[in-house]
Amino acid sequence: MVSSARGTYDFVVAANRLPVDRHVEPDGTTTWQTSPGGLVTAMESVMRDREGAWVGWAGFPGEAPEPFDDGPLRLVPVPLSAEEIADYYEGFSNDTLWPLYHDVIVPPTFHRSWWHCYRAVNERFAEAVCEVAAEGATVWVHDYQLQLVPAMVRDRRPDLRIGWFNHIPFPPVELFAQLPWRASILRGLLGADFLGFQRPDDARNFRRACRAVLGARAAGDQVRWDGTDDGRTGAGPRTVRAASVPISIDASGFQRLADSPEVCERAREIRESLGDPDVVLMGVDRLDYTKGIRHRLRAIGELFEDGDIAPPDVTFVQVATPSRERVEAYRTLREQIEATVGRINGDFSHLGDTAVHYLHQSYPREEMAALFQVADVMLVTPLRDGMNLVAKEYVTARHDGGGALVLSEFTGAAEELRAAYLCNPHDIEGLKETIVRAIRDDPAEKSRRMAALRRRVRRHDVQTWAEEFLAALASAPQRPRGRSRR
Ligand code: GDG
User: Fold this and answer.
1) Secondary structure (3-state) at 234
2) How many whole angstroms from 150 Cα to the centroid of ligand 1?
3) Which of 389, 410, 417 to mutate to test the pocket of ligand 1 (most atoms within 8 A of CB)?
4) Please, what's the b/e burial string for 97-132 (b: 16 or more CB within 10 A of its CB; e: otherwise)?
5) 103: CB partners within 8 A, 6+ apart
6) 36 lines ligand 1 (CB under 6 A)
7) Fewest Cβ atoms nearer than 10 Å: which of 52, 112, 167, 462?
């Protein structure tokens, strides 16, 4: 709802990025197009039905455009300078927090200047939220880039109901404790009324960190903290609920897309262009070290070497969407992956029969849906992943009930998708066996598993997720109302 008299809103989302990308046409006019990606895909269907404001960075450095409307949604751009993009986003968010929160797969980098910038940018987001939030509004903050925003908003506006959702894992305190600014991060989060996590373990890790780092009390899924050590973070003692609310996809929307004659026809074309193999193995990921692409290639390479699979009967398609290319660890990973693909193809491809089709490109959603339909076995093998929406999209796209999902135990999705072929991606021998099993299993067993997976995603879709989150936020423990410091 819009409180139009004041240009403020009863529902405000804050996320690092706005849900749109700017395109400048050759004649100089500007258009905005919905951007791809996990969060946008999930929130799009939630925001479609409600009026509200979305606070986020527009995706380019320098001055931000004026707020503008996109359908029922008010978009409020937050400016970031080139230096802030380097320090707050590429630095602290993607080179400190991202590796730390994903089990230190690569070592996190700690720089005090990055932290100072992260704090300053979070302050700017908090101010923008307070400006557009109506009295008593609900504010939904997203993800690890904005962990200080809940307390910064609370300090200015105790009247607001504030929720935060973590799209990525929350690490065990033994790893989290490495962070020099661990107490400030926890205090920032405790400004919220409700904190949502992907898995029960993530919520538990957070509560344990509050106990160990802040000396807070935790009972059940609540953290009680007196909030006194720096006199900020809301007035007086607070009780905050931290629980799991696993994210999902717009299952009916994605199923409709996958069912469309155009997508089905495109799937046929893709299969034909691959030489109509008996089995198409596939991986679809952002090119990220958390996604386990190197381990997967290792297993695939050995399967070709052992003769368990061979082109043209079996081929492997790896889509690796370009990601964070200015961060060193991502550039190194890309080189390693491309060297491995080259080696496998050099050894096992023949003229006209390619062992590994590697695509370092971004595709429209329709093409993604068609690719999913072509995959006889989808390999989702991250070393750590908050949820993994590709797993849920894949089973939804297979409306014929065919296919098989190989899924890493270390994804949030594995908590729900128990009927998948579960694997430990670190165990290359075990991973190879699981892939072979998923290829050769009895068709009746495969379709039983697939039916269970499809049922689960249909019943727990993104709308259910948003309703659960907002219901938990609405019923979160009431706190004493303090005086606004605006
Ligand atoms: C974070 C967490 C959590 C990918 N390439 C293209 C494309 N995609 C779409 C996929 C899917 C989404 O992007 C990726 O979502 P994931 O869940 O796999 O991974 P992250 O980007 O790491 O997302 C993750 C998620 O947040 C949500 O909470 O599940 O654990 O890390 O929807 O289909 N879409 C298009 N072209 C591409 O080339 N159109």
Assistant:
1) coil
2) 25
3) 389
4) bbbbbbeebbebbeeeebbebbbebbebbbebbbbb
5) 169, 171, 175, 383, 384
6) yes
7) 112
37 lines ligand 1 (CB under 6 A): yes
Q: What does the pLDDT read at residue 486?
A: 40
Q: What pLDDT, on the 0 to 100 scale, is given for residue 230?
A: 55
39 CA closest ligand 1 atom index = 27
CATH numbers and ranges of domains, the chain: 2-247+465-474 (3.40.50.2000), 251-460 (3.40.50.2000)
Instruction: Tell me how far the alpha carbon of residue 393 lies from the centroid of ligand 1, in angstroms.
Output: 10
Q: Give pLDDT tens digits for 398-415.
A: 999 899 999 999 999 999
For the CA of 41, the nearest atom of ligand 1: 32
- Which regions of 255-343 does DSSP assign to beta strands (E)? 279-286, 314-321
Q: Probe ligand 1: pick from 197, 388, 411, 457, max atoms within 8 Å of CB?
A: 388
H or E element, residue 298 = helix 293-306
Highest mean pLDDT among 21-30, 48-57, 449-458: 449-458
**Given a cut of 50, is residue 2 above it in pLDDT?**
no
**What pLDDT is stored for residue 45 in this prediction?**
64
Q: Are strands 73-78 and 68-70 parallel, antiparallel or unpaired?
A: antiparallel
